[in-house]
Design brief:
The complex is a heterodimer of chains A (585) and B (139). Chain A has 585 residues and is an alpha+beta fold. Chain A has twelve helices and 16 strands. In chain A, helix 2 packs antiparallel against helix 7 and helix 10 runs antiparallel to helix 12. The longest helix of chain A is centred in the middle third of the chain and has 90 residues. Chain A is rod-shaped and about 190 Å long. Chain B is α/β, with parallel strands linked by helices and 139 residues long. Chain B starts with a strand and ends in a 6-residue tail after the last helix. A five-stranded parallel beta sheet of chain B has the order 2-1-3-4-5, with helices on both faces. In chain B, helix 2 packs parallel to helix 3. In chain B, strand 1, helix 1 and strand 2 form a beta-alpha-beta unit. At the A-B interface, helix 7 and helix 8 of A face helix 1 of B.
Chain lengths: 585, 139
């Protein structure tokens, strides 16, 4: 019967259209949805955002620290390696004279000893102050070569010890030299002791100090020329156009390599013209970051999906509960208003009936006396005419009497006798009173009664009155040759009797007022209504602890449904009733 | 057969006098008074003790129920019919508990009223006869 209560709520009681009310509840559901989504998603978003940024910052710091320490470690190792080599060359120059070293056997022996100490040495040579190589120990037979114009030679003369940039030289092989200049104590001229080291040695050295986290490690010379091969910037001799950092320490910067972000650590190698450069992919490309980001994404997406579904369900549930509560409240208010109206009208009716009864009694007695006199005195002129008029008067008084007595019955509190009543039997008894009327009008009445309908605790006489009123209304509604169906059912602990007719049906306006006292649609013909029948019926049903609802459609018919709870003894504390007989409307 | 006497007590004198007249026409001895006090005065004087009193419920001064109690205390065998425009079953029940014969509503059908008066008078006669037959109380 949900549709009935809804129908009552929106069309009878509240007066608001169902579409307006439904739109209101849809808006409420959307608001709830938005509010709950905000409440649920804001913490998720904040947590996810904070986690994202914190972890990103942590990884960035960690990556920066890692590349810094790797670079610093490589820088120190390289400095130590070159420093030791320089010290060795310096030691040899200090321990020997130009004459000693100019002897090939001596130079060969010294070179042999140096090679034992250090791998990667290519050759060892002695150059006099004019730049002419006076002695050479090594595989390439470069004795007599003139280095007068070589930059390294000039720098070595000027600085005493010099590590050169990587260059190709006469052999056309990338290498660098460590050159030490010394002044000969004899002719006071300068001479230079030079050792060549293949670039391969540097490459191997750098690859040994690099770590897993490092993408690229290489050396850049004083003019930006690559001293070793870079994985990303090209082979030795290529140009590295990036500005190099200051003279000491390690500088870590964030750079872009192609489309990728990289961290670059750079620091000078003391005693050389070189700058050590390390690069590694920024945290975004690292596995731990990608794994974290994916996990975060899965968690956030799952939270949104699961939370969203829960919120949808919850919002729907809340909106439904609110709607149900509103409907119940409005229904209860409407019923209370209706009951209050009935009680007020009842009291008013009682007062009016009493006040009318007294003058009515005077009219009745006066007219009755006239009739008495006229009946006894046969000589009165126009006697028959007077008698007719008096009869009309008495007839009108009688009609008034019926109305006032019914009004008083409407207001009167009737004692209820509660017993176990079978509703099917009550319906059959009532129909037995109306069989002839139905037959006379050609109306068929079909019964579809549930044979297992349980009994209810109620008052049989008042139940008869209820069904008599409703079925009589149905008979009046269908007129001639209509069809009425009376059904009984048990639904969720409630017995229901539905009386359906195929009469003309009622407009929503009529449905809205159908239970109001003095509301009638029977304004003509031989079956005028006082408008109290359904109001009395409503009062009786409420007093017996039941419910009554109506559904009607123009051109289709009307259904009244009366329901009573099983196993509940009605509370007879209030309500109005009538035992004065049948009302038609 | 003895004529039944009826006393009508009603503040609506138009009604009471007309009703009395109609009852007279039907062979009853009917008189009317306008209040409960007047009715009690008549009874206290023992001038005329009616067989039946027809009593309105709502009257100025003492109301119908108070008058009923007073009448019954003065003349227990007098039968009283409440005839009122006020349709309260509680008043009817209260009246019955105080010895009321019956309860009718205005406007009343004269034939129905005459019948009720006849029944009330018969009961009064039976009560009086029973009282007369009873042995006198020992002195």
């Amino acid at each position: 019967m949900e549709w009935l209560s809804r129908n009552r709520l929106f069309s009878l009681e509240s007066g608001a259209g169902p579409s307006t009310a439904m739109a209101r509840y849809r808006r409420l559901r959307r608001l709830l949805l938005a509010a709950m989504a905000l409440i649920a998603l804001i913490p998720v978003s904040i947590t996810a955002g904070l986690s994202y940024h914190q972890y990103k910052a942590l990884l960035t710091r960690e990556a920066q620290d890692q590349i810094y320490w790797t670079a610093e470690s490589a820088q120190r190792t390289l400095e130590a390696f070159l420093g030791r080599l320089q010290a060795l060359v310096l030691f040899v120059a200090n321990e020997h004279t130009l004459d000693d070293l100019s002897q090939p056997q001596v130079l060969e022996r010294v070179f042999g000893n140096l090679k034992k100490e250090h791998v990667g040495l290519v050759d060892l040579s002695v150059i006099d102050g004019r730049g002419i190589q006076v002695a050479y120990a090594g595989p390439y037979g470069l004795a007599g070569k003139d280095y007068r114009d070589s930059p390294w030679f000039q720098t070595a003369l000027a600085r005493r010890i010099h590590v050169s940039d990587v260059f190709m030289g006469f052999r056309n092989v990338p290498h660098f030299v460590i050159a030490v200049s010394k002044r000969d104590p004899g002719d006071h001229d300068y001479w230079v002791l030079r050792v060549s080291i293949d670039n391969e040695t540097l490459e191997q050295f750098l690859s040994a100090v690099t770590s897993q986290a490092t993408d690229d490690i290489f050396l850049v010379g004083s003019t930006g020329v690559l001293q070793t091969t870079s994985r990303y910037y090209g082979p030795t001799g290529g140009q590295f156009d990036v500005l190099c950092p200051g003279k000491t320490g390690i500088t870590v910067t964030r750079e872009t390599r192609g489309v990728r972000g990289v961290l670059r650590a750079a620091g000078p190698i003391r005693g050389t013209p070189w700058v050590l450069v390390l690069e590694q992919q920024a945290f975004a490309g690292r596995l731990s970051w990608i794994a974290f980001r994916n996990q975060l994404l899965v968690i956030v997406a799952s939270s949104i999906v699961v939370g969203g579904l829960l919120i949808l369900r919850l919002a729907h549930l809340l909106a439904s509960r609110i709607r149900q509560a509103d409907e119940s409240r409005e229904l209860a208010m409407a019923e209370a208003e209706h009951s209050g109206k009935l009680a007020s009208i009842g009291r008013l009716a009682a007062g009016v009936a009493h006040e009318i009864n007294n003058p009515l009694a005077i009219i009745s007695e006066k007219a009755g006396l006239l009739k008495d006199i006229l009946e006894r005195d046969t000589e009165v002129r126009y006697r028959d005419k007077f008698l007719t008029q008096v009869a009309g008067l008495l007839n009108a008084v009688n009609r008034c009497r019926v109305i006032t007595h019914r009004l008083l019955g409407f207001a009167r509190r009737i004692e209820v006798r509660v017993e176990t009543v079978q509703l099917n039997e009550v319906v059959k008894e009532v129909l037995s009173f109306l069989d002839k009327e139905a037959l006379y009008r050609g109306i068929t009445i079909d019964l579809d009664l549930d044979p297992d309908l349980p009994g209810i605790e109620s008052d049989q006489g008042q139940l008869q009155q209820i069904f008599l009123n409703i079925i009589n209304n149905a008979i009046d509604a269908v007129g001639q040759s209509g069809h009425i169906v009376v059904e009984s059912n048990l639904r969720q602990g409630t017995v229901e009797v539905a009386i359906t007719d195929d009469g003309p049906g009622m407009t929503p306006e009529v449905q809205k007022n159908i239970f109001e006292p003095f509301f009638t649609t029977k304004t003509g013909g031989d079956r005028k209504g006082t408008g109290l029948g359904l109001a009395i019926t409503y009062g009786l049903v409420k007093k017996l602890g039941g419910k009554i609802a109506v559904k009607s459609a123009i051109g289709i018919g009307t259904t009244f449904v009366v329901s009573f709870p099983v196993g509940v003894v009605p509370d007879m504390g209030g309500g109005n009733g009538d035992n004065l007989g049948l009302d038609r409307g | 057969m003895e004529t039944t006497s009826v006393l009508i007590v009603d503040d609506e004198q138009e009604f009471a006098s007309t009703l009395a007249e109609r009852l007279e026409l039907r062979g009853l001895a009917a008189t009317s008074v306008a209040s409960g006090e007047e009715a009690l005065d008549r009874l206290r004087g023992h001038l005329e003790v009616p067989d039946v009193v027809i009593l309105d419920l709502k009257m100025p001064g003492i109301d119908g129920l108070e008058a009923l109690v007073a009448i019954k205390s003065l003349e227990p065998q007098v039968e009283v019919i409440l005839l009122t425009g006020h349709g309260s079953s509680e008043a009817g029940i209260a009246g019955m508990q105080r010895g009321l014969f019956d309860y009718l509503m205005k406007p009343v059908d004269i034939a129905e009223l005459v019948d009720k008066i006849g029944e009330a008078a018969a009961r009064r006669r039976r009560s009086l006869a029973a009282e007369a037959d009873a042995p006198a109380a020992p002195r």
